[in-house]
Amino acid sequence: MNETKTDCALKLSGLTKVYPAGKKNIITAVDNLNLNIPHGSVYGFLGRNGAGKTTTLKMVAGLSKPTDGEIFIYGRKVEFGKPASYKNIGFLPDVPEFYSFMSAREYLFLCGRLYKMTDIEIKNKIREIFELINFDKKRLKNKISAFSRGMKQKLGIAAALIHSPDLIMLDEPTSALDPIGRKETIDIINSLRGRYTVVFSTHILSDVERVCDKIALIEKGGLILDGNISDIKAENSGLNETLKVSISENTPGDCERFLESAKKLNYLNYIDLVKDKENDNIAHFSFKASDRKKAGESLPKIIYESGGSLVKFAFEEINLEDIFVSATASGLNNNINKQKGGV
Amino acid sequence: MNGFALFFRKEILELFRTVKGIILAVIFLLVGISSPVLAKLTPEIIKWAGIDGSDEEFAALTALIPTPDSAASYEQFFSNFNTMGLISVIIVFAGVIANEKSKGTAAYMLTKNISRTQFILSKLASAAAFVFASLIISLGSQMIYTGILFGDKIIDNKSVIIFSALLFLYLIFILTFTLFSSVLTKTATSAAFLGFLFFIVFNIFAALPKIGKYMPPLINNFGIITAAESVRVLLPNIIITVICCAAFVVLSVKLFKRQEL
Description:
The structure holds 2 protein chains of 2 kinds. By secondary structure, chain A is an alpha/beta fold. Chain A is 34% helix and 29% strand. In chain A, the strands form 3 sheets. Chain A has a 6-stranded mixed beta sheet, with helices on both faces. A 4-stranded antiparallel beta sheet of chain A has the order 2-1-4-5. The two termini of chain A are 27 Å apart. Chain B is an all-alpha fold. In chain B, helix 7 (116-149) packs antiparallel against helix 8 (157-184). Chain B has helices spanning 3-17, 19-49, 56-64, 70-93, 95-103, 105-109, 116-149, 157-184, 188-207, 235-258. The two termini of chain B are 25 Å apart. Chain B is elongated. Chain B is built from 10 helices and no strands. Chain A binds chain B through residues 58, 61-65, 81-84, 86-87, 89, 91, 93, 95-99, 101-102, 106, 110-111, 113-116, 163, and chain B through 1, 3, 6, 10, 13-14, 17-18, 103-105, 107-108, 110-116, 257, 260-261.
């Protein structure tokens, strides 16, 4: 397409979706969501089940009408039910359903012709996409009804790419796949990098860490985190970092004395204690540390004073799962309000 | 080709490749073939029932049965079509939109470059084309078999053509309220149920005094074939049927445009 290249591939401005629930109640599926997704990025759209990811993507794809707010794809405003306003996207729903009486070739030609592509253009594009996503060309003549879920996912991606849109949106593309299918899909998303702007929603954080440049985390329809993964990790590195401490008891009661002293430190939160399977004298402690520096300075001293010997002292690198759990916890709801003002 | 033409082609392909198209075509064909045969054989069957000739009363009764002719053949066709033919149209096309909504294929395709109006109209046009072709086959076989079995010239072809045109208009009317039912509901079963409800309600209206004589069901009229009824008399019904068809199509499009998928 490449019609209206701007730095912003997708802009959501105050996007809100409210559903009626009964006579008097309403459900706010998407709550004043503001988001700028830059051109060329692979963007992970994260959130728990029911957080509002699919509703948001459906509004972008023109399938659902926003209650409030605006959507812009490369500067062009999306209007509900008007295909011309969202023709620059390729959308793949979470469980794509096809016309099973058709062959893959017929289906892709139908999709291509809808965008007024010539048969030669469609043929060339199919060849190019099939190489990109490692799709066996011999399957083109097969009926879609004979395809596995993984094959259907690949066909869906091919159908999303057929008209060369600038923005590809994949709704939970890996959630229904087996590990091999998941890996293949993540590899495909990786291969799209640099050619398209890719937005994919998921709650599988390992997939996000493997492939995304940037993420947005939504909870209860509102944005609570947005930015580069490395920046988000850095910002959260001091917050509730997991500290693993292993102590060998020289005299009985060393561990209890250590734990008693450690619990008094306000920058440490005790998580659990596990006895070593092979050596009863060794105990493994886990803490959440809000101040890495202070913990590093004080704990060895406390261990020495308790009479035990330090076996292991390590901060575990914070991962997205920690951030996800921490950010979606109700205690951080103030973040929602902070971010609602605009991104 | 635009979205309408592409989806028209897709719909026709679907009707040819799936069981629903085959069912409709076979039912229409069966009605066309079986009606003249039934008209021919029914008096014979009744006579065979009293074959020993011992019952004088029965013999007197069979003597009253008129010799079947081509008018009886068309009457049989009319009777069979009004049951099997019309019901099969509602059943086959009830899922035309509802199935696409429940399976998710409509949501997926409508993210591509096709408008909702094109989507709906292509469904109606392809259904109408398929029904038209099936009706031609049905009436064609009816005419051929009637000619072979009876050979009389009681019914002229012009009457049959006018009757067929009105029957086709009535089938379009059925298609439009079936389409509307399919847009309104989420499953093919509920769409079929609602379609039957419309069918029954319109037939009840047709039986009412004063307004009944203007209702769409009366354009499906056997009197046209036997020249007992004039097309001019049915003109108000034709106009009302066309208006109803247009109203159902407009409502279907408007409603579908507002639906979130």
